[in-house]
Amino acid sequence: MSRVLTIAPMPPEKLAYALARYSRSPDSIRDSIEWVRSHDSGKFLESFYFQYGHASIADLGHLAICFEGVSELAATEIEDEQLWDGQARSSRYQDFSKSGYVVPPDLAENQITTYRAAADRLLASYARVHERMLAWYQDQLPRPEDMKPEAYKRNLAARAFDVARYCLFFGIPTGVGQVVSIRTLEKQVRRLKASPYLELRELGDEIGRSVGRPADCGWIAVDANEPVAPTLTKFVDADEHPARSKADLTVWARQNLSPSVASKVNDVDLMRPSETLTDAVACLLYEVTDRPYRELYDTVSSWGESRRMEVIDVAMQSRTRRDELLRSFRGGPYVYDIVMDIGAYRDMHRHRRCVQLRQEFGTALGYSIPRPAVDAGFDADLGTALREVFVTAEQLPKPAADYILPFATRARFLFKMDFAEAEYICRLRSGVKGHFSYRTVAWDMKCAMEKVEPQLARMMSATPPWVEDPLTR
User: The whole model's pTM is what?
Assistant: First the structure.
């Protein structure tokens, strides 16, 4: 008899029930599956998962879910789970000029008119930039004799999209496919329901309704009346603690922090914090201010323990028994504080083996102009388009104004990781097939590590951004 038994796709909750029973009995998995056929998995989960807190059971059932027509902003929030597997539509290989855009559902009528006008201008700029960049690349990079015309055209079109995507914005619709455990989905739904963005709150509710009914599509025949994960929908409420904690910390920071010293730090700044409490407090304040991590860490280092614990107490006062510790308390020995454009972040955000924090999106850090646009001679036109949309973003109310922010917008992000993850990111993201924006970030990460850990940095392999092969994809 084989020692390796495969299991055909099953409804997620029934699979979790079968595997949980299997771990708690001497029976074969065949017997456990047969047992589940005649017993109510919902009652089992209600008892052991929700009532007794055996959360690991929910890791045993997985769901495949797709989100269609959601905004890039929503996609960013959907993907913001560490234990998450999925992909979104790539803005590097597809033409988004005719896809339309998502209008924030909480804008007033006159604000919608303003938003639409800016969105239409950005999409027109996107199409114009792609057309001009494609012509420029064709002039600069003639087709090699050994390259097929189809491959040549495809590669140059992708390179042109690399520049044009700076005009895409958070309101662009996209699709996201994910495979997650029941536990991760529950955390995701709770987080979305507490989002400041109405679109995300509505999606959180919609996920609950969707998994509470039979699947919309599938590969093999299943019971058409079998709901996907009906028990999940009964117990998932909004996770209010992170939002309340952030609001409380915002008030504390406004009332207690001295004026910023406006210290100058590199766009990629690496620290290895030596004091855990200081790091946690600095990270808590990082998300509710616009200050670099280094400035916050140095500030908190000068405080006494009682003042540091005051920040911890403020952050924790809204925590309930069900709430996990905030992300700020997690991380690795290396803390990268990175200022990059949103487009680069959408790619860097995929790295799950690290803890990621970010500051509020906005116009304060300006925008990026890609080097190819400068070389092609229309950086001034692109800059004008970006400045115009920044004016609109500053006129619209938060948080809906974030939808009109283009991918060129610069923002500040914190990545906490171990050395193995730093080495992996630098090696992978610096390759010639990558987008030039995150290639620069990856190279700067390596250079920063050389200053902090010169011996370990010898193990890091990265491709300098000035080494290019535009016809390689």
Answer: 0.92
The CA distances from residue 57 to 19, 243, 425, in Å, are 8, 27, 32
Q: Edge-to-edge strand order for the sheet containing 85-88?
A: 62-71, 173-181, 85-88
Q: Rounded to whole angstroms, how far apart are CA atoms 176 and 67?
A: 5
Is the dihedral angle over the CA atoms 378, 380, 385, 386 positive or is it negative? Answer: positive
Amino acid at 78: I
The per-residue pLDDT for 162 is: 93
Residue 79's Cα: distance from chain center in Å? Answer: 5
Cα–Cα distance measured from residue 263 to residue 303, given in angstroms and rounded to the nearest whole number: 19
The residues spanned by each domain of the chain are 241-322
pLDDT of residue 413: 98
**Cross-strand bridge partners of residue 341:** 410
Q: CA dist 237 to 86, 194, 282, Å?
A: 24, 9, 29
Integer Cα distance of 350 and 268 in angstroms: 18
Q: What angle do CA 352, 206, 45 make, to 5 degrees?
A: 75
DSSP code for 323: P
Confidence class for position 220, pLDDT limits 50, 70, 90? low
Confidence band for 286, pLDDT divided at 50, 70 and 90 = very high
